[in-house]
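re: the backbone from monday

yeah here it is again, tokenized this time
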């Protein structure tokens, strides 16, 4: 499998308006009506996927292998949060991202995500036990 080359600095952003379904109450990660950490992590992951989407060749994908989340501030229902992912390091098949999440001028979270480049079909076959 020939790995695509990605350069540090590659970035993308994704946005989310917090709904009831995104809250800690709805996700089972707490009992407060604010953006739940699992949903915040999913948003950060979506930003990392978007950063590589335009350059990744067919048959290749990335999967998350590690994440570190610092969720610092609450975002209530109705607020718009923006996740900005930047590729900071490439180590063979490993792509290391720094993601910042903002709610207006407030930094809601910092997330570090490691993704691994791999053959999509082989990964699926292995997951299915083939």
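seq for it, each position gets an aa:
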């Amino acid at each position: 499998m020939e790995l695509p080359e990605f350069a540090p600095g590659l970035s993308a952003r994704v946005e989310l308006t917090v709904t009831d379904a995104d809250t800690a109450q709805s996700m089972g990660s707490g009992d407060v009506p604010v953006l739940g950490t699992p949903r915040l992590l999913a948003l950060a992951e979506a930003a990392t996927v978007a950063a590589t989407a335009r350059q990744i060749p067919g048959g290749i994908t990335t999967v998350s292998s590690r994440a570190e989340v610092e969720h610092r501030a609450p975002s209530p229902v109705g607020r718009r949060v923006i996740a900005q992912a930047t590729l900071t390091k490439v180590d063979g098949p490993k792509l290391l991202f720094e993601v910042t999440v903002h709610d207006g001028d407030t930094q809601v979270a910092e997330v570090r995500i490691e993704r691994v480049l791999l053959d999509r079909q082989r990964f699926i076959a292995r997951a299915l036990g083939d």
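Residues 37-53 form the longest helix (17 residues). Helices lie at 24-27, 37-53, 120-127.
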